[in-house]
Protein backbone atom coordinates (compact mmCIF):
# COMPACT_ATOMS: atom_id res chain seq x y z
CA UNK A 1 0.00 0.00 0.00
CA UNK A 2 1.38 3.39 -0.99
CA UNK A 3 1.79 6.01 1.73
CA UNK A 4 -0.08 9.28 1.38
CA UNK A 5 2.68 11.89 1.63
CA UNK A 6 0.71 14.88 0.38
CA UNK A 7 0.66 16.64 3.76
CA UNK A 8 4.41 16.32 4.31
CA UNK A 9 5.12 17.41 0.73
CA UNK A 10 2.96 20.52 1.08
CA UNK A 11 4.59 21.39 4.40
CA UNK A 12 7.98 21.06 2.69
CA UNK A 13 6.88 23.49 -0.01
CA UNK A 14 5.40 26.01 2.42
CA UNK A 15 8.57 26.20 4.49
CA UNK A 16 10.55 26.76 1.28
CA UNK A 17 8.12 29.53 0.23
CA UNK A 18 8.73 31.30 3.53
CA UNK A 19 12.50 30.95 3.17
CA UNK A 20 12.61 32.03 -0.49
CA UNK A 21 10.23 34.96 0.08
CA UNK A 22 9.48 35.52 -3.61
CA UNK A 23 7.15 33.84 -6.13
CA UNK A 24 8.04 30.21 -6.85
CA UNK A 25 6.82 28.42 -9.95
CA UNK A 26 4.98 25.12 -9.87
CA UNK A 27 7.84 23.63 -11.86
CA UNK A 28 10.41 24.61 -9.24
CA UNK A 29 8.22 23.29 -6.42
CA UNK A 30 7.70 20.04 -8.33
CA UNK A 31 11.47 19.62 -8.49
CA UNK A 32 11.71 20.18 -4.72
CA UNK A 33 9.36 17.28 -3.99
CA UNK A 34 9.99 15.08 -7.03
CA UNK A 35 6.56 15.24 -8.58
CA UNK A 36 4.72 16.68 -11.55
CA UNK A 37 3.94 20.44 -11.73
CA UNK A 38 0.28 19.62 -12.40
CA UNK A 39 0.10 17.84 -9.04
CA UNK A 40 1.65 20.89 -7.38
CA UNK A 41 -0.83 23.27 -9.05
CA UNK A 42 -3.83 21.17 -8.01
CA UNK A 43 -2.60 20.95 -4.44
CA UNK A 44 -1.61 24.60 -4.17
CA UNK A 45 -5.00 25.63 -5.56
CA UNK A 46 -6.57 24.09 -2.45
CA UNK A 47 -4.30 26.20 -0.27
CA UNK A 48 -5.15 29.29 -2.33
CA UNK A 49 -8.87 28.65 -1.81
CA UNK A 50 -8.22 28.43 1.93
CA UNK A 51 -6.34 31.75 1.89
CA UNK A 52 -2.82 30.53 2.70
CA UNK A 53 -1.13 31.23 -0.64
CA UNK A 54 -1.62 33.33 -3.73
CA UNK A 55 -0.51 32.83 -7.29
CA UNK A 56 0.33 35.06 -10.21
CA UNK A 57 0.82 34.18 -13.86
CA UNK A 58 3.46 35.58 -16.12
CA UNK A 59 7.17 36.27 -16.24
CA UNK A 60 7.66 36.93 -12.51
CA UNK A 61 4.70 34.78 -11.47
CA UNK A 62 4.47 31.88 -9.12
CA UNK A 63 3.17 30.96 -5.71
CA UNK A 64 3.66 32.98 -2.51
CA UNK A 65 2.53 32.74 1.07
CA UNK A 66 -0.24 35.11 2.12
CA UNK A 67 0.04 34.35 5.82
CA UNK A 68 3.18 33.89 7.90
CA UNK A 69 3.97 30.31 8.93
CA UNK A 70 3.54 31.23 12.58
CA UNK A 71 -0.19 31.75 11.94
CA UNK A 72 -0.75 28.41 10.16
CA UNK A 73 -1.06 25.06 11.94
CA UNK A 74 -0.62 21.52 10.71
CA UNK A 75 -4.36 21.12 11.24
CA UNK A 76 -5.09 24.12 9.00
CA UNK A 77 -3.16 22.54 6.13
CA UNK A 78 -4.60 19.08 6.76
CA UNK A 79 -8.09 20.55 6.54
CA UNK A 80 -7.30 22.75 3.51
CA UNK A 81 -6.12 19.67 1.63
CA UNK A 82 -9.47 18.06 2.33
CA UNK A 83 -7.72 15.13 3.90
CA UNK A 84 -10.03 12.40 5.01
CA UNK A 85 -9.33 10.00 7.77
CA UNK A 86 -5.86 9.91 9.27
CA UNK A 87 -5.84 6.14 9.38
CA UNK A 88 -6.77 4.05 6.40
CA UNK A 89 -7.02 0.76 8.25
CA UNK A 90 -10.22 -0.82 7.02
CA UNK A 91 -12.79 -2.60 9.08
CA UNK A 92 -14.26 -5.76 7.66
CA UNK A 93 -17.94 -5.91 6.84
CA UNK A 94 -18.12 -9.24 5.12
CA UNK A 95 -19.97 -10.91 8.00
CA UNK A 96 -21.88 -7.99 9.46
CA UNK A 97 -24.23 -10.25 11.39
CA UNK A 98 -21.37 -12.00 13.20
CA UNK A 99 -21.08 -10.83 16.81
CA UNK A 100 -17.33 -11.46 16.84
CA UNK A 101 -16.81 -9.26 13.78
CA UNK A 102 -18.99 -6.59 15.38
CA UNK A 103 -16.91 -6.71 18.59
CA UNK A 104 -13.60 -6.57 16.69
CA UNK A 105 -14.78 -3.67 14.54
CA UNK A 106 -16.09 -1.76 17.57
CA UNK A 107 -12.78 -2.14 19.41
CA UNK A 108 -10.70 -1.11 16.40
CA UNK A 109 -12.97 1.79 15.57
CA UNK A 110 -12.84 3.16 19.13
CA UNK A 111 -9.05 3.00 19.26
CA UNK A 112 -8.62 4.55 15.81
CA UNK A 113 -11.10 7.36 16.57
CA UNK A 114 -9.34 8.11 19.86
CA UNK A 115 -5.90 8.13 18.21
CA UNK A 116 -7.13 10.32 15.36
CA UNK A 117 -8.71 12.84 17.73
CA UNK A 118 -5.47 13.07 19.69
CA UNK A 119 -3.41 13.46 16.52
CA UNK A 120 -5.67 16.20 15.12
CA UNK A 121 -5.59 18.00 18.46
CA UNK A 122 -1.80 17.94 18.36
CA UNK A 123 -1.82 19.12 14.72
CA UNK A 124 -3.74 22.18 15.92
CA UNK A 125 -0.99 23.00 18.42
CA UNK A 126 1.92 23.00 15.95
CA UNK A 127 2.48 26.06 13.79
CA UNK A 128 4.48 25.71 10.61
CA UNK A 129 7.20 28.06 11.82
CA UNK A 130 8.18 25.34 14.32
CA UNK A 131 9.10 22.82 11.61
CA UNK A 132 12.82 22.32 11.99
CA UNK A 133 13.61 26.00 12.51
CA UNK A 134 17.16 25.33 13.75
CA UNK A 135 18.02 23.27 10.67
CA UNK A 136 16.32 25.72 8.33
CA UNK A 137 18.13 28.79 9.65
CA UNK A 138 21.46 26.96 9.33
CA UNK A 139 20.56 25.90 5.79
CA UNK A 140 19.62 29.45 4.81
CA UNK A 141 22.81 30.92 6.27
CA UNK A 142 24.90 28.48 4.17
CA UNK A 143 22.89 29.14 0.98
Could you give a short account of the major beta sheet?
2 strands, antiparallel
User: What is the CATH C-level name of the domain at 6-87 and 127-142?
Assistant: Mainly Alpha
Q: Which homologous superfamily in CATH is the superfamily of the domain at 6-87 and 127-142? A: Winged helix-like DNA-binding domain superfamily/Winged helix DNA-binding domain
Residue ranges: pLDDT <50 for 5 or more in a row? none
Mind sketching the topology for me?
Blueprint: H1 6-20, H2 26-33, H3 37-49, E1 53-56, E2 62-65, H4 74-80, H5 99-123, H6 133-142
Antiparallel strand pairs: 1-2
Helix pairs in contact: 2-3, 4-5
Q: Keywords, please?
A:
mainly alpha; Arc Repressor Mutant, subunit A; two-stranded antiparallel ribbon; 6 helices; 55% helix; elongated; WH-like_DNA-bd_sf
